[in-house]
Amino acid sequence: MELPFSLFRVEDASEIEADVPFAILSSYGKADAAAVEELAGRVRTVVYAVQVRANEPAPLMRAMAYVSDRMPNGMIRDVIVSALSRATT
Q1: In this structure, are residues 33 and 39 in contact, taking their beta carbons and an 8 Å threshold?
Q2: Taking the model in full, what pTM does it have?
Q3: How far apart are CA 71 and CA 41, in angstroms?
Q4: What CATH code would you report for 17-87?
């Protein structure tokens, strides 16, 4: 999927500086509530998660947006670009 900006991958959320417009937090399993809470408290955050259960929405509450690998690529892109525009206005 093409995005209109560059992405940089970091292994540790503490490497993300507070002056970045936003972060995309990727999770291969269930989103880690503590990681979402910590990162979203410092930087506007979009969660990209493979596995989210409707009965466990708490980790996503502080995030600006949520995308899943089950969504069409165009929709994922639109959500991320929309979050970026909200983060920079």
Answers
A1: no
A2: 0.70
A3: 26
A4: 3.30.160
